[in-house]
Amino acid sequence: MARLQAIEAYRATIGELPLRVRVLYEGEEEIGSEHLAAFVERNADRLRADGCIWEAGYKDAAGRPTISCGLKGIAYVELRARGAKKDAHSSVATIVPNPAWRLVWALATLKNERDEITIDGFMDEVRPPSAAELALLERLPFDEAATLRIHGIERFNRGLTGVELKRKHFFEPTCTICGIVSGYTGPGSKTVLPAVATAKIDFRLVPDLTPEKVVRLLRGHLDRRGFADVEIAPSHGEPPSRWPADSITARAAVAACRSAYGTDPVVYPLMVGSGPMAQVCDRLGIPVAGFGSGNAASANHAPNENIAIADYVDHIRAFGRFLHAFAGRPLD
Hints:
Layout: H1 2-13, H2 36-42, H3 44-47, E1 52-53, E2 66-68, E3 70-71, E4 73-82, E5 88-89, H4 99-107, H5 131-139, H6 144-151, H7 162-171, E6 176-182, E7 192-193, E8 196-205, H8 211-224, E9 231-238, E10 241-242, H9 248-261, E11 266-268, H10 277-284, E12 288-289, H11 309-326
Parallel strand pairs: 1-12, 2-11
Antiparallel strand pairs: 3-10, 4-8, 4-9, 5-7, 6-8
Helix pairs in contact: 1-11, 9-11
């Protein structure tokens, strides 16, 4: 809405747009955008463009506008362990296998207490950051104290700080247990031996990991450890996407944010979240930059997900300036 209102404001104050804008909406991003690739294939000629501003963006913990030039991919799976044909009384746990324990033992092989992903061959598929990307991390501001305060924690994983913290955040994949369900979880007690245990897991992917590789590696890893009975049900997946920080899109975004906010934006090599960027921009060769109206405490995917009204208005101003800059018009 902020971007549509930026177009309205531009027309009301400056005049007709100096370029053509295509706005692409799709409503399946949270379930893997399963119909988007076919849509892009059918409408490739209509969708081709010189640049793309992606759908997300925020101010960092220090209040600086950020620009991202790509995003991580994702592989989402459900692991399922089965025991008896139906829930049983917990007294028979002496002789009847418990799938909840089976699942816990399988999960414990995926990551160790040092926060290292231990799936066979998984980290071997990760493309290391280039010298230029590491140099970018050296210059990249990251307010560690404010980020710790926002999340209410005392330290980051592995106790990392500085460049190593930023390297892990932007250039390493993840393996996250998003939820575990088994047996009775209601109020009070119920002495039950569950028949089924499930865990939902997402992997955030960096080059050269793909959803297909993750499922294959995970299946082989579990099989080699005697967990061939643990089922893997793949859900949605997206490959990662990364674009140059000096593309025509990124340069115009930097100029627009600098003009709108009165300060230099922070340019990230990618967003640590995921989306169908590869299905659209990689497929059509459209360089990407992303900036938006969020904030470091927007609580994405959590209760009270939010943006501030002032940030919403600021994004209207910034996006209008982007249209002007991308068309080659001076901002001063």
